[in-house]
Amino acid sequence: MVVSTQCIDRSVSVAWLTQGYRASAERAAILFFVLNDMGAIDPMYQFALDAYTDLYSLSIDKSQRSPKLEERINNLNEYHTYAVYRSVITTSYRYHRPTRSTCSYASHLLSVPRHNLSSSSRAFRNSAPKIWNSLPPHILQSQTLSSFRRHLKTHYFQSVYPAP
């Protein structure tokens, strides 16, 4: 049996690309299982595999392309991480959103559930909305992951090390 060098080159390049995208697949799997485990905290945090698969496909289509594989994987990972973040914030936290239209709803703030015990104030469902609401509006309205990260890091750095 004679195998052409073109077939061998093609199979090597497919194997190389497959191996290259493995890092992105691992990152996507970790993100899904984190979301899946959030369902154990509260059923409102459940995320369907079909919805996640659609979100990942959208990330593949919308993330910035690059001729360099490492750069492409990095762009895909960053875009998908931010897409998951935005999706979870907008869909899973419906419980924390006010039921009527108010100024806080328009500014993307989350409502904090009432609680009776002091220990329940440290629970994720109570502390997460408080932390989110304490962020300045310019951070909450960031349009990209990189600008959100930059503003958030600057905010926390300045809160720990205030200017003299």
How would you characterize the overall build of this protein?
- This protein has two domains: 96 residues, no CATH class; 64 residues, no CATH class.
- Helix 1 packs parallel to helix 3 and helix 2 packs across helix 3.
- It is mainly α.
Topology overview:
Elements: H1 5-41, H2 49-62, H3 69-91, H4 103-106, H5 124-134, H6 137-140, H7 145-160
> What is the molecular shape?
globular
Note the total helix count: 7
Structural class: mainly alpha
Which residues form runs of ≥5 with pLDDT under 50?
A: 1-5, 100-105
Q: H/E element string?
A: HHHHHHH
If you average the pLDDT, what whole number results?
77
- Give the total of beta strands: 0
Overview features:
single chain; 164 residues; mainly alpha; 2 domains; 7 helices; 0% strand; globular; disordered N terminus
